[in-house]
Amino acid sequence: KKLLCNGGLYSGLHKKVKKDMNSEELLNFISEEKIGRYVYDEVSHELKIVIEINGDYWHANPKKYNKNQKIAYPKGIIEAQEVWAKDDKKIGFAESLGFIVYVLWEQDVHNGSHLPILRRIKNGG
Asked: Under DSSP, is residue 100 helix (H, G, I), strand (E, B) or coil?
């Protein structure tokens, strides 16, 4: 299921992370925030932090995919390395503006290993 958020849609995975962020009192984040030409999952302008929530398939988790594996997107098939290059450009843009970017992977959200990252953010980085 997808939920409306700031005029856009976000996934059940994003909903879970947002719930965990709220539990950790990370309340000053804006969901689906557009900066330049990119939309980031969670942004705190105050803390200068971006949190990207990456699905293992759609972002070709490097722990599960090799660089030449094909990912079938609605607009065509691309290789995992192309997905990574697009994600790297997006992350690099945020970093060029002074943001620290944390990437939370789907498998880590499901096994809870993203929680220490949220706690580190809560405690100042």
From this structure: strand
SS3 25: coil
pLDDT per residue as tens, the chain (125 positions): 344 444 456 788 999 999 999 999 999 999 999 999 999 999 999 999 999 999 999 999 999 999 999 999 888 999 999 999 999 999 999 999 999 999 999 999 999 999 999 999 999 86
CB atoms within 10 A of CB 97: 12
Q: What is the DSSP pairing of strand 30-35 with strand 38-44?
A: antiparallel
CA 10, chain centre distance (Å)? 11
